[in-house]
Write a structure and sequence with these properties.
The structure is a single chain. The chain is α/β, with parallel strands linked by helices. About 40% of the residues lie in helices and about 20% in strands. The chain folds into two domains: about 10-220, Nucleotidyltransferase, domain 5 (2-Layer Sandwich); about 265-450, no CATH class. Strands 1, 2, 3, 4, 5, 6, 7 and 8 form an eight-stranded mixed sheet that branches. Strand 3 (about 45-55) and strand 4 form a beta hairpin. Helix 16 runs antiparallel to helix 17 (about 435-445).
Length: about 450
Amino acid sequence: MDQSQSVPRIQYFFVTIAKHIFYHERYGLVHVWDPVRLSEAKTYGLRPFFLYALSVAHLAIRWICLTPQDRPRALLDVLCEAWHEGLGLRGSPDILIVNHHLASASPTLAKNMAAMGVTLKVDDGQDRRPRKLQSVAQDVVFELLWNKKEKEGNLEEALSLLKDLSKQQHEKSCLPLQGCLSMQKTKALRRWLDLPKRDVPLCPDAEMDWKAGDWVTRWEWDLPPKHEHFFKKNLNKTFYSLVSGSNAEDDKKRDIEDVLQTQDELARFSKCVSSCFPSDPRALAAMLDIPLRHLDWFFSEKYRLDESKRALLADVLSLEKDPESGQLSFQEPYFFEVKNGRSMKDIAAFFIAKYKTKGFEIIPQKGKADSTWRYFLFTKKADLLMVIRGGCQAFNTKRLPNILMDYLGVCKVSRAFYDDVVETYSRAACDPKVNRSEALSFVNRNKAFFAALR
């Protein structure tokens, strides 16, 4: 570590198979919207790429490299190139963190790093950042071709183009984009970029020092069952995409945006409602007798539920078809929870704005309020629409009053009413099947309270 440094330079490094970019002999670089297994990609004539990625700890600075799966590069070669050419990395770090898969696949990596003054550390699995950084790197690859302006002629031209596009995204990751970073993170980014760059020589002749295993395609485990895809030229006509759907003539005439907008109404509504559900998503999946990932696939319209499960899901989430419009609608009342920014956004857009509700927070007239949760009641023409719970210290809960069109502030209620809200909510949160029934019972027990709101 340099004498001028107060903290060590730390970087994360990992290798995987890219999910969203492949090479096709006819179409060149192909963007894959919904990831497919490598065995399935082969049937479409797609050649996969290894994705090597480096990330600076606690910052958004990234560097990626893509090489054909059948032409892997030595880790030492890739790392030296990254530290030599990636200006935002500021040369080699003091500590390089890898997962246990990569450490086991490359027995000489620790020795090679020590020779360069870099300490290799193996992630123990307790830190979530390495997994999150892998996801971020895949997202970067997902967007890589958007800046593509010309068509490559062969694989070598494609690799050269990928290198240029990767360099562009690296330079972009070093910029403090206006409005995207807090003042604290902006200062941290500038402090990092002000560090002296450590010169690292290139190692193009490095011997192959690692062996890939099943772990490079670990993301395949989360993929839905095999379904049809077809090639579609992107709107800017500089690359092709592999999109979900059949290869019928009418599909060919549609733009990619049209394909993406074809949604299952129940999937769209239930995804919105369940994001605000106080119950653990696993409880909802268990009720349907399916794995949680199948439920996530259904929400993303990559998996079909049979009719009995669809009917059960609609019943539990209180979704019914409107007899006049024929569209699904939400049947109140219900208990919801502000879990994160997404659930708050769904609550605001789907329920509060749609039903023109009035909302207020409740606290007891006597005694102390719950120190963990805050409770908000929302009414529609004096009828209870929903009760929303949010963590007392949660940032999103604090923002909730600011997004309401007709927020009435804090309302003091009797101790008995407040306790009834807390106890009923706790029962509803334990089992998704009783959410609405508990809400209806709560309304019946407190008719006088809601009548006084008229």
